[in-house]
Each structure stands twice: as C-alpha cells, then as structure tokens.
Amino acid sequence: MSESTIQIALVLPDLLGTYGDFGNAVVLEKRMTWRGIKAEIVPINYGQPVPDSCDIYVVGGGEDTAQTLAVKHLREHPGLQRAVTKNAVVLGVCAGIQIFGESFTRADNVTHPGMGLIDSTSHAGGSRAIGEVIAEPAGGLFEGVLTGFENHQGRTVLGPAARPLAHVKVGTGNDGSVEGAVQGRILCTYLHGPVLPRNPQIADLLIEWATGVKPAPLDLPAVSAMRAERVKAAS
Amino acid sequence: MNDSPARLPLRTAAAVKLGNLSSTLSQKMGLGAGGMIGGRVALKLDPQALNRLTQGRRVAVVTGTNGKTTSTMMLARAVGALGEVATNHSGANMPDGHVTALSKQPDAPYAVLECDEAYFPAVAGASNPSVAVILNLSRDQLDRVGEVRTIERSLRDAVNKLQNCTIVANCDDVMVTSAAWNAPKVVWVATGTGWHHDSASCPRCGNPIRWQGEHWHCTGCDLARPHPNWITADEAMITPEHQKLELRLTLPGKFNQANAVMASAAAHAMGVPADEAVRRLRGVSNVSGRYRTIQRGGRSARLLLSKNPAGWSETLTVVKEANHPAVLVINAQEADGRDLSWLWDVPFERLQGRTVIASGERATDLAVRLTYAEVQHTIVPDPLKAIDQMPQGAVEVIANYTAFRDLNARAAADE
C-alpha cells in the first residue's frame, strides 16, 4: 500500500443524506483504517465546488427537491464527472442511481437530465416500494446475498453498457427483477440500511477497486449476526 | 351529556357513549389502556365526532417531530389556570385518541390536543383551534410519515386555512418557520434548538440557507428568521413584555426548556399570564413514564425516550454530564419506522469510553452501529436484563418508541 491517504468524498450530505448515508462513508473509512490503510472522509456541502481528486465518491438518497438541486450543483461543478474519467470509484444510492443515469422522470411527468455516468433511465413507478430487500449477486461480482431496505418511487431501466448489481429475490429494486447497476467503477443501488454496513463485501469490493489490492479478511461478529437476522426476517 | 359545552347531536352523543363503553371494556378485559379504542368506535359511528366534540371549546393543537407529549402536558397544566382541560395524555395522538380524550371530559371548556404531524391538517380542520403550536420538524419514520418537506408543505397548507388561530412557531427551525410564514397571526419563539441537517436548502425555493450565529436567511427568497416574540435564555425565558422569568424546570435538558417556552407562549395566547403559566408547568416531572427512575437491585435506571436522530442527539447531550453506564434499546416496529438507517445519523461516537449495552428487538443493528462508532459494548436483547447486568448505581436507559412503551409497562408491572 502506498503512503497516500484514500480520500472518501461524501457528496452533498446536506442534500443527499436523508437515509443515514453518512454510514456508507464511515464504513469505508473504518474498514480501511482498521487494516492500516490511511483513509479520510471529505464532506462536500451544497454550494462548494466538487473536487476531482478524491479516490471514492459516496452519493446518497434525498428528497425530490433536494435531488433536483443536487443534480444542478453536480452539473455546474463537474468534479465528480472528471474523477470518473480518471477511474475514481463511485457509490450511488437511491437518488444516486437516478441522477447518475441519462435522465429521470418524476411523478409529475417532468423529465430531468441526469449526469450521464451510467447507461440508464429512471421514471416514477405506480406505487412506492418500501421494505426489506434480498438480492443475489449478478455475474459473480461479490459473495453472499445483498440485503437492504428500499423506500423509493423511481423505477430504473438499464441500457446495454450498464449491468445489474444483483437479481431481486424479495422486494422491488430497479423494476422487480434486477437491482442496482455497475458500470466501470461506478456501483449503484436502491438499498438503504445503509447498504455498506449491511453488506461489508460490497464495501470491500469498493476498497479493492480504490486501492488495487484485495483487502485482508475482517471478521465483525455483529455484522454477520445482523445480516443473518435481516435475511431471515425478509425471507 | 346534557351540559356539554355545545349540546351534542344524538348521533354523536350515542357514538361517544358506546365509545366510552368500549374504552372501559378494553381496560377491564386487559386489552389495552383504552386510549384509542373508544375514539375508534366513536369515529366509526360518527365521522364528524371530532368536529362536534370540539364545538364550543377553546382548543389548542400541538404538533412537531419531537417534544409533543411533554409540551402538551405543560400546556394543559398551564391552561388549567383558566378552567378544566380535556387532553390526550398518553401519546394517543391521532383522531381516535382525541375523540376518546374529549369524550371522557365532555364538560371541559378547554382542550389541549397532541397531534401526530401527519394528522395535523385533518385534526386542525375539524377542531377549529384557537392556538396551534409547531415545535420542530426533522426526519422521523421516513417509511411511515414521509419526508420532512412533504410534511412541511402539508402543515403550511393547513395553517394558512385556519381562521382566527394563533400559530405558535419555533423560529430557530427553518422548516417550522416556512410552515407558519404566511399564516395570518404568528407568535415566534426563539427556542435555541433546531436540527439543521434537513434544511440546507430552502423548503420554498431550494436555494441554500445561510446561517450567521443564530440568524439565518434564504439566499434565494425572502424566507428568513423572524424577529422572535419570546426568547429562550439560559434556564429562563424573555416574554414579549421583556420580562425575564426563571424556568427552574424539573425536566432535564435544553430541549425541555424549549418545550416550556413554547408551552408558555401558547398558554399566553390562550389567556394565561406568563408567570402563572411557568409556575404551573414547572412541576411536570414524569411524562407518560419518561424521565422517571426505576430501582432494580441497587441500580437507579433513568428512562429516556428518543425516537429519531434529532431526539437522540439531544438525549446524548443530556446524559453527557455524568459518565453513567448506558443501556440503549432499539425496536423497529411499524410505529418506530421499520428502516433503521437513521441510527447512522445519531452521533453515538459520543459514548466512547462508557459502559454500554445494546438492547431491544434490533440490538444487533445497534451493535453494528456502535462497532463502527468504536464504542465498546455487549448485546443483551431484554432491556430489564440489560439493566440488571450493569454495575450498581445510576444507569441511563434510552429507548425508542415501542421499546420505551414496552419497557415502561414491564417496569410499572414490577413495581
């Protein structure tokens, strides 16, 4: 491991932090620090320029108006888009999956341009999807099931350049069958919980992408116990 | 029912009678506390019951995310200076709870109703209140109640429709200020408390909100902190007549000082002199079991209720002073919100170095949060057993809604 510190950008936590999304950044930071990898969280608030120099970008869920403002800000300050061209790792949750796409259409039928980072479009579904989700990994991307809590109106359709993160067993995800999206080093999901405390294997996958090294095993009994409980409760 | 404030139509009177009978039966048969079932029966039989039962009374409605039960109890005590008050004491804060409370005291000329924020438009519409109190608005039970901005908008629409109603609003809370901004008559209270994490952007125009000390303004529209009529000072309040009154509350914490000043301002709007209001509400010490201390084998366990990030953040401040061991109890039933993502918005890092037990139906979710907060802990799902495992002396027990309700009932049964 190099001497440099892995910088985790927490993107607009004041707009896109409604569902405990700060937890995803904490999990990345602690799982690196505990293994002797230097890491720090860099919050980027609304009104501030977005740097393109961070290693990992974490984007969370937000309310409708906040989401619209967030896209506007991220398009006006395209540091995240520049970072993607330099191979940065990105996690997009809920609103994240919608704003990273080509476009998203709200319940009022107004279509907003997305950031064009993943090959997808989102639109409002008939009913709000709320509840526990279980999904199986797609294409052997990670081990163990994906668990989380979804609470969203949007439905997402992936184009050929994006592939699903997982296949839904319980819950709705993107469309009732697939969940999330992966394109290059951008990983998106509808799942809260937050998603990384629930799914340490995804956290370690992002760390591996950022550092280029598969991280050493890290056994946290509380995490295994919680995963087992949640999977049992949802099944 | 003959001497009710406004004579009830036969249908309402019969509905109320049957409702009261159901409450009594529910209590006798051990089915519940009877706080809601009576109202539920009465509302089924007469959907207009809430409107009819409030006619002829002077009504105050109290809403907001945190502090509703405490503020309602304080306001009811204060308004007691004017006459008998009907009030829903046990947190049964939806229309069936209101109907039950009003049915039990048909002659009370005053009513002080705690109201769930999602039901505020319906309840305010039906009860024609003289005073509506909006304490604060922050994220809570996102899967049940919905997002904060949706609630703010529905409160805004509701208060704008109220005739002859004084809105008592917290001007240190951007969401509350926006909700009350266009109401014809508003009394602004500086509470010194507010959760800023849901108001980085203006709820009206979306532009950033800028804070300078206690003052704040929107950078895009005219929404800004209004000049307060009442001010919460350190352990005291300043009235619109610039009189400084010591609070000397029994309840701990800054948050309860804010509740007391909001309640005093509301009581004042109902016609109670400020000094009398404070004198009366000062004695509130045990709010549906909250803040009470239970004794278990040499342990004095203080029971504290916290339901959401803003509430937990405040309670962690209250328990900060003494380094007592803490039992944290988390459930995620429907009334709590089933999504526990909010645990990551609570600054549990402040408990580093303490003796902590994670408890409740979702103790393992809490244990994961504590692990990443680097707080040493053990897991004991049963909260009473968790208290018994603590060293003798003072113990702080912080629980969320159903966890608190169940623990409080079991502790009361043990006494």
Automatic annotation (TrEMBL), chain A:
PROSITE patterns: GATASE_COBBQ. Substrate binds at R128. Keywords: Cell shape, Cell wall biogenesis/degradation, Glutamine amidotransferase, Hydrolase, Ligase, Peptidoglycan synthesis. Pathway: Cell wall biogenesis; peptidoglycan biosynthesis. Its EC number is 6.3.5.13, 3.5.1.2. Residues 7-199 form the CobB/CobQ-like glutamine amidotransferase domain. Pfam families: GATase_3. The active site is at C94 (nucleophile), H192. InterPro entries: Class_I_gatase-like, CobQ_GATase1, GATase_3, Lipid_II_synth_GatD. It catalyses: L-glutamine + H2O = L-glutamate + NH4(+); beta-D-GlcNAc-(1->4)-Mur2Ac(oyl-L-Ala-gamma-D-Glu-L-Lys-D-Ala-D-Ala)-di-trans,octa-cis-undecaprenyl diphosphate + L-glutamine + ATP + H2O = beta-D-GlcNAc-(1->4)-Mur2Ac(oyl-L-Ala-D-isoglutaminyl-L-Lys-D-Ala-D-Ala)-di-trans,octa-cis-undecaprenyl diphosphate + L-glutamate + ADP + phosphate + H(+). CDD domains: GATase1_CobQ. The keyword Ligase applies. The lipid II isoglutaminyl synthase complex catalyzes the formation of alpha-D-isoglutamine in the cell wall lipid II stem peptide. The GatD subunit catalyzes the hydrolysis of glutamine to glutamate and ammonia. The resulting ammonia molecule is channeled to the active site of MurT. Forms a heterodimer with MurT. Belongs to the CobB/CobQ family. GatD subfamily. HAMAP family: Lipid_II_synth_GatD. This is Lipid II isoglutaminyl synthase (glutamine-hydrolyzing) subunit GatD.
